[in-house]
């Protein structure tokens, strides 16, 4: 039975809670079992934000992520807070603005997620969708088709094409690993 624990960390306003919901929904569309949880600081924007998703081919015994297989960190504080929890066989994905420790035992890949959202897609607020494309491309835990369906179902009306472009750019980034 294949199971994957994913933690998405960043700051409030980056859309990581929505990203977690979308990722869990895509897994369900693929016929898998999934659970999603979230936590965030009391601030509306700028405080810490964390979404967790467990995706499995079978029963999920405990609904919280204990040792993530994958950590996405869009901020330095998320990286510092959660990097120690990741399994040694896991993967840490960070935005290229995040400074990482070179002595990490966990494979760490840097991608220009925030820059791609702002400069290529044209809107910084789609960094969460770019991130989902990167995660899906690297892990293959959900199909591209199901992820796109889940994205388009959850994003605000009128932003579908923008978010479709963000997802495609994420797939492109995930297909070309950047610096460690």
UniProtKB/TrEMBL annotation:
Pfam families assigned: POR
Keyword Oxidoreductase annotated: yes
Keywords: Oxidoreductase, Pyruvate
Domain (Pyruvate/ketoisovalerate oxidoreductase catalytic) ranges: 12-171
InterPro entries the UniProt entry points to: 2-oxoglutarate_synth_KorC (IPR052554), PorC_KorC (IPR011894), Pyrv/ketoisovalerate_OxRed_cat (IPR019752), Pyrv_flavodox_OxRed_cen (IPR002869)
Gene Ontology MF: a single term: oxidoreductase activity, acting on the aldehyde or oxo group of donors, iron-sulfur protein as acceptor
Protein name: Pyruvate:ferredoxin oxidoreductase and related 2-oxoacid:ferredoxin oxidoreductases, gamma subunit
Organism name: Caldanaerobacter subterraneus subsp. tengcongensis (strain DSM 15242 / JCM 11007 / NBRC 100824 / MB4) (Thermoanaerobacter tengcongensis)
């Amino acid at each position: 039975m294949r199971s994957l624990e994913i933690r998405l960390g960043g700051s409030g306003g980056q859309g990581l809670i929505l990203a977690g919901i979308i990722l869990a929904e895509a897994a369900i569309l693929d016929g898998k079992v999934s659970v999603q949880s979230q936590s965030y600081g009391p601030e509306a924007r700028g405080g810490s934000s964390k979404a967790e998703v467990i995706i499995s081919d079978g029963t999920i015994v405990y609904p919280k992520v204990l040792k993530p297989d994958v950590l996405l960190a869009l901020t330095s504080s998320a990286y510092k807070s959660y990097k120690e929890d990741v399994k040694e066989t896991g993967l840490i994905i960070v935005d290229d603005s995040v400074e990482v420790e070179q002595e990490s035992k966990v494979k760490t890949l840097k991608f220009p997620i925030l820059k791609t959202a702002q400069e290529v897609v044209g809107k910084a607020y789609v960094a969460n969708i770019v991130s989902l494309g990167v995660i899906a491309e690297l892990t293959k835990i959900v199909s591209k088709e199901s992820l796109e369906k889940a994205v388009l179902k959850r994003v605000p009306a009128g932003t579908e094409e923008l978010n479709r472009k963000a997802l495609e750019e994420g797939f492109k980034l995930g297909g070309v690993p950047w610096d460690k």
